[in-house]
Amino acid sequence: MPKSSTDKRHFIIVAALIAISTVVLDWLLRTVLPLPVQASLEAMTVDWLIGLHLLLISFLFSLVVVFMLYGLFVFRKRDGDEEDGEHFHGHTTLEIAWTVIPLLLVLVFGFIAMNALADITRSESDEVTVQVTGFQWAWRFDYPEGFSSQELVLPVNRRVRLEMTATDVIHSFWVPEFRVKQDLVPGMTTTLRFTPVEVGEYKVRCAELCGLSHWSMLAPVRVVEEAEYRQWLQEKTAGLDPALVQGESASTE
Amino acid sequence: MSLLSLGIVRGLIGQLVGTAGGMALTMLIRLMLGLPAWKEEPVWVVGLILGGIGFLIGVGAVSDWFKWMKGIETPLHHGPPADKPAWTRYFGVDYNHKVIGIQYAVTGLVMLIIGGSFAVIFRTELARSGLQFLTANQFNSFLGMHGWAALFGIFISIGGMANYLVPLMLGAEDMAFPRLNAFAYWLNVPAIVMLLGAVYFGWDAGWTVYPPLSTKGPVGFQFLFYAVFFLGMSSILGSLNLLVTIFRMRPPGMSLFRMPIFCWAIVATSLIQLTATQLIGMSFLMLSVERVLGMGFFDPAKGGTPILFQHLFWFYSHPAVYVWVLPGLGIISEILPVFSRKPLFGYRWIALSSVAIALVGFLVWGHHMFVSGYSDYLRVPFMISTMLVAVPTGVKFFSWLGTIWGGKISFPTPMLFVLGAISVFLIGGLSGPILATVPTDLHLHDSYFVVGHFHATIFGGFVFPFFAAIYYWYPKITGRMYDERLGKLHFWIMTPGFWLQSIGQMSVGVMGMRRRIADYDPALGIEPGHILITIAGFAIAFSILLMIYNLFHSADVGELAGANPWRSRSPEWQIPSPVPEHSYASPITVVGEPYDYGLAGSTYIRMAPASAGHD
Ligand code: HEM
Ligand SMILES: [Cu+2]
Ligand SMILES: [Cu+2]
């Protein structure tokens, strides 16, 4: 084992260990941080970005920890050695390098994230719009066809726009399988968009502490085939006063 | 010696009398106005405020100032009180910064333990799905209490480190304003009493107390608001005192870049505390006033907006998170060179990175509000500014690596805790950018991932370094060594326990576990994770009990430490342990660099011959 702290061999060994550690860690992180089903288009973008982050985390964690453990081992004090270590104060080039490189990295990441954000929040002309109201401690979904529902039923592969508000305190709309989240605030309307791509049953889980029963403020979400969705709308509107029913055109325009 | 001769007893009586008086006064006024005497909120609020003042008068924290008003001179008293046992000085007003430092640190530890106990209770509840022994109401109250008690513990413990260490590191006899120092400490005690009252009366909106939830609900909220108000006042006065001390009382030769690095951390911390604390004081006052007088700052029905509160709250509370960690990072930088026997790598970069973190910290509050409903165009700027914090933070990590590299490293307990701190803070820091990235935060916000993130930053940035500091300066404070075997056991239980806890929290968060819920849906598949987190939590709690035992036990039977067991160059290690009443027998002069380990013949400070000293 080389003794001098500037010996190149140290750095070659460390670089190899970091490479191995990065790969192992990246695999480990993906295992211990299992994401829910990807039930929306947004989930794919978000998960891709999470994956990118996990890779970077694995590398940076390895960089620091491998360097540290290796240094601690190689430069540990031997019994009876009362000498001090080598005397150096710093290295300006290094300091500049590890200021500038992370700075660039931040800008690159910021740019990627900005584009991803624009993508997942984009609007489309053909959106299904539902009014969502949160209150202590339940959800109500008002459809433009003129009826209210306790469950949120959505057609698959259509862009959804939720227009949301709260009547009492702040709540937050989160379906983990969709990956997106938005607060509902009394006195204002907030908007959330996503595109469900997996038929199935999910739950909205209120994500903002809203008092006593916050923990149980859930509502069912069903993503169904377009045909089933139309049928459900028809059932719901069947008993309504026709004057109130704006018909299907309102929800598809 | 009677109980009444203890300042704290007189203070508590004063608080009781003040509270009762304030309540009676309010009821009297209400009667005179023709209103029914009892109305919970206003009566309590006036009681709380006058109670706090009553404590300060009772304990004697303002006595000297009253005497000055009457033209009476009050020379600073030195040493333990003449007619009482020496230990009593810790329970009353004392102006010596070392006494005040110990008062702060012990109070801080007690608050951390109280906060931790609440966590253990509701963590046990969360181990399995289903509500077992807490009601949802109790769960919510305990949760908020855990948060604020722990935060009190952190603020107060930081006051302990700063007060004890800064004057010693500067070779100064005391802080710039000793009376203000004592006053700032004693503000914390009535605040703690009010905080405990808040749990009794209940409050259920977490530590962030967002309205409208916090403008409804039990009167416990008011207790919390005034507790935080008094604590905040203490922060402001304490930081003012520290800044003046550092800028005005350095010895000859100690330029800013020759200070022990911990002092730089305290400069950065104090800048934040002095300038940002007002915001939380104001926002809590607005909540209080909204509740008592019905003003509508945050009430949409009256033209207010709930989001305004979040801006005000985070404009303070984000910089505050740097208050919690910068001193700890300073401790890491301080201790690492001693046990590596090498100079601190990149001293100036480390010093300035603290200031940079403090300044950038003022521009990032909006990252707590990505999904709050504020204007969309705010998201990207706050994302970029937040990620920028990673740059100066990275500089610290790399400089620490440079410090270790090429050293002669030994591993006593304080060094182990410093290394543990680096590993844990790394977990916390690396889980930050993924939250700062808006698209990924849309999933992670208000999930348990955030809980994992900030516990890792706080433990890595505060708790581990604080424990390192306790072990490291224990011989300086008590004159005796702690038990090394127990210390190492503490470390080897706590550190893996903590890794497990953080990773577990992040894991269940990603899977869909929400923050602040009394019970969860086992269908998410998160129950095994919760059991693991709970076990890890118990392990951590147990290891901390080991430390407490160690500290008490070793004070009696520990080996005598001598002046400088760590062979440190810092001024405080060049004087006897425990530190004498007047720390330095003679003034010191700085003649070299603080961390020149390995440079033959160099010294940091020189002491004038003892005869040249004062009294
Ligand atoms: C690289 C540095 C850091 C970054 C990029 C970062 C980023 C973030 C972000 C974006 C959030 C909001 C997450 C959300 O609610 O969705 C957050 C929460 C939090 N962070 Fe950090 N953070 C960093 C360091 C720290 C430090 C040093 C502390 C100090 C202890 C800290 C303490 C907290 C706390 C307490 C919360 C939760 C607040 C709450 O909502 O209750 N963070 N962090
Ligand atoms: Cu809720
Ligand atoms: Cu923040």
UniProtKB/TrEMBL annotation, chain A:
Cofactor(s) the record lists: Cu cation
GO MF annotation, one: oxidoreductase activity
E.C. no: 7.1.1.9
Listed PROSITE patterns: COX2, COX2_CUA, COX2_TM
Superkingdom of the organism of origin: Bacteria
Transmembrane segments annotated in the record for this chain: 12-29, 49-75, 96-118
UniProt keyword list: Copper, Electron transport, Membrane, Metal-binding, Oxidoreductase, Respiratory chain, Translocase, Transmembrane, Transmembrane helix, Transport
Note on cofactor: Binds a copper A center.
Domain Cytochrome oxidase subunit II transmembrane region profile: 29-124
Catalytic activity: 4 Fe(II)-[cytochrome c] + O2 + 8 H(+)(in) = 4 Fe(III)-[cytochrome c] + 2 H2O + 4 H(+)(out)
GO CC terms of this entry: plasma membrane
Subcellular locations according to the entry: Cell membrane; Membrane
Listed GO biological process terms: ATP synthesis coupled electron transport
Cytochrome oxidase subunit II copper A binding domain location: 125-235
Membrane topology classification: Multi-pass membrane protein
Record-linked NCBIfam families: CoxB
Physiological role: Subunits I and II form the functional core of the enzyme complex. Electrons originating in cytochrome c are transferred via heme a and Cu(A) to the binuclear center formed by heme a3 and Cu(B).
Protein family according to the UniProt entry: Belongs to the cytochrome c oxidase subunit 2 family.
Protein name: Cytochrome c oxidase subunit 2
Organism of origin: Litorilinea aerophila
